[in-house]
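lol ok so funny story. i was supposed to be doing the assay writeup but got distracted and ended up predicting the structure for this chain instead. priorities right. anyway since i did it might as well share w the group, maybe its usefull for someone
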Amino acid sequence: MVKRSELASRPRGEDDEAFDPLAVENVGVTLAVELLEQSIHQVPPTSAFPGAGVYALYYLGGHPAYQSLVSLDGGHCKYPVYIGKAAGESSKQGFSPKVSGKRKLLQRIRKHASSIEQAANLVLSDFRCRYLVLNDAYISLAESVMIRVFRPPWNGMSLGSNPVGRNRMAGEPALWDSLHPGRGGRPAGSSRRAAEAERLILDRVSELQNEPEDPKLQKMFRRVMRFV
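and the output, tada:
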């Protein structure tokens, strides 16, 4: 947590610009920080809860492909391995001011828990999560900002893919299923794709050491990272 004295001592620079609390990047940072301040839970959470929103998965285990990420995190659940969202029923029916009464977020996390349990080289107890229940209007924005800031390795590896039909089982295997074989209904993985997944993990962790080049993204990155 940032101390008040530290905030006061920071040079103003570009912060002298008038602050617009409704600018999309400022709303996104607010949502991202709120997610980071939520409690840490087992995967899936043991208590049922309603609502849609965003969530972060953290890995604390010993799989060698994640050594750099686990080392950077230090067991503090700061750097997620995956950021995801679960939209409410109103997402396809237009805006609703009400938060979803269905367990959309919980169901999504449970789906990932099932994938992890089926994997031959992962242990579900090595995972933790944070989640934030939101109105549909903010869900995609919060997810987008968190992915931009933390570059989670599993985003882009098809963790959230659905089982495919028989005619598609010979297709290109997903990176996730190549590195973590065992899920049913997906094309068989390959050593080539597994090696590609391992390189992606290293690249994503390396990217965390460097700020984005885009000035607006850089400012967002700095603001969110103050709370890590």
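The longest helix spans residues 191-207. Residues 1-11 have pLDDT under 50 and may be disordered.
back to the writeup now i swear
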